[in-house]
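Tutorial, part two.
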Amino acid sequence: MLEKSQSQGLAERVPGRDVRFLDLDRLLSALLRQWRIFAICIGIGLMLGVVYLSLAPRLYYSEGAILIDQNVQGMVSDVMNQTSVATIESELSNQSELLRSSRVARSVVEAEGLNTDVTFLNPPPSFTGRLRQIVLGPFGGGERRQLTEISVEDATEYLKGGLVVGRVGRSSVLSVGYMSHSPELAQRIASAYAQAFTREQLNGDIASQATSWLQDQLVQLSASRRQASDAVEAFRLSSGHSVAQDQRLFQQRLDGLTAQLVVAQSETARARALNEQVQRAVAEGPAAAGANASVLLTGDADPTTAALLNDYSAIDRRIVEVTATFGADHPQIAVLQRQLDEKSSAIFTQLQQLGERYANALRVAEGRETQLRADVQSEGERSALTTQSQVELAQLAQKASALETLYNSFLTSYEEAIRRQSFPITSARLITAPTVPGGAISPRSTFTLVGATLFGAFLGLCFGAINELRERSFRLGSQVTRDLGVRFAGYLPDLRLRRGRGIKLGATLPEDQLHQTLRKHMIEASPDFAVATFVETLKTGKMLIQAQRHHGRGVVIGISSILPGEGKTTYAIALAELMSLTGQQVLLIDGDLRHPATSRIAAPYAVSGLVEALNGMPWRNMLHRAEGSSLSVLPAVTTAPRAGTDGLVSSQLAELLREARDEFDFVIVDLPPLGPIVDARSIIPYTDGVMLVVEWGRTPRRLVRTTLEQDAQIEASVIGAVLNKVNLPKLSRYSEMGEAERYMGAYGNYFRPAPPAKI
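Running the prediction step on this input gives:
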């Protein structure tokens, strides 16, 4: 590994830098570098959100609230027990499933005629449907066919898709709502659902079915009981028992049946009278219900009925008092009259339920009377008693007794069911009626745009993270020091030379003018910050090279890079020009025989050079020196189609560099790249060190590190490195808060010449 004690010592003095779990400075720097991608992705997300909002159909929601009152159901029981929490939860679950049932949905379809409602049957196309229409255009199959009618079953299933049933908190209130593309349709269907549900509760179909079933069972048990009794008597008759033997028992039974018949006739007469009284009150209608309220007191009035009658009387008295005090036109009269009408309607409902109860009781009494008459007649017509063995007679009698007991049990249950059914057990009440929604619930503009923005931001973070993970090149001098363990000599800005205007961003000058332009800007003090930074980096390299000079001898320094095209030639020429400005003798040797760019720029008209010198020709006669400059150039010129490398490892090269070291203060050799080419490796042993040029943002760090690690001689020869083609405006994005690159822009005005003082 590349290790330098100086850089390691500095790293060891920075506490806790590598143990931070979240480096906010580094994260902020990464966001600043990737802000364009981040902004583009957010823009794309917002655009998608706007497209969705423009194409997605609007949905409206209307909702009502229904109270499931458990206390009303408890009035039916003889003993009022407190309803448990489990019972309430179970009841609410049952009512929720009833609301979602196909039965209620079908009643809504039939009540509102939804199977023929064009608005209900033809909703607007969905977002994907509209998108498909736009994309496919005329090839999408044309307009959709409008439906005018479907079956009730299909409409029922379609209707259930928009129903929303929920519970309001932990209360006994159920919310029933409907979503539709039309606000009026949503309100109409939600109201229809609430009405259908309350009608379902009022009808009490389940209780009626149970009562009918009990009645059918009573008829069957009555027939079975009579058959069992007849079988006992038939057995006695066939067994030869005399009438005298059973006369006493027969008379007792007949007396008992007669007594029961008398009681049954009395109950029938009473039930008929009560039923006729209630039916007359019902026939007079709701308007006269208050006047007939006293009828409710003829039976077993429950507390609710008594409270209702008291409220009615109190309101009626209040109307009389207000009329007597303020007159019939007082506004309070209308309010009290509406309350009186509501109480009258409630009294009328209880009158109807009481009438149904008395009608059922009359039917039971008449049935019982008819049955007893038949039993008395049957017993009176029997003229003989049978003689039978006591064992078989006991078995038949036991069967008849069991049927009698079962019949009485079912009769008791039937009467209890009739009594329960007659109570006002309507437990569902609509407490909040559905209204026409004022705005759509979907799509929600704010939510959609925020979600689209977050989606775009997420994409931006993903793509930005990918770009950051793909970053494998050198961006900062600290990376050069940390990864390579060499001295960082500075940044060379990404400059282009343009004719007539010096070093600026633009097209490259011809090679024959590049040398003169570089020399001009080495001599003149440019106010441009990029040029000034370029020159300051050259000065840093000059100091590193001067540090290699010992005992007055000249210094031989190689300039190289890892990859071709990283700008080593420009750096070598500019560095040589800068060092020659102080009057020191500088020799620039073009050691890149395969691509002698230095020769084309600094000695474009040379006809001989390094190759010829290595072949025995005097090298001093091949030097090119500009007028008024202490810089000499030994080009690499050959007439061969391809220069070989054997001369670079010969003793002539070592002798040439030894002589040049004695005659020049500094010898700068433009070396070939250090990659797989062996040319540079053959010259480095004759030098005092190598300055490495690394292209900013292009050369992979691992490639540079691996290349140096594989050759210990090259690693030991590198005295410094520069980053070339640096984009100065972007440089600060790759540095963290507090690093030197963040403050390079502060020196922009420092390099500008100060204005002349005013006199």
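DSSP finds 27 helices and 14 strands in the chain. In part three we will examine how such features are distributed along the chain.
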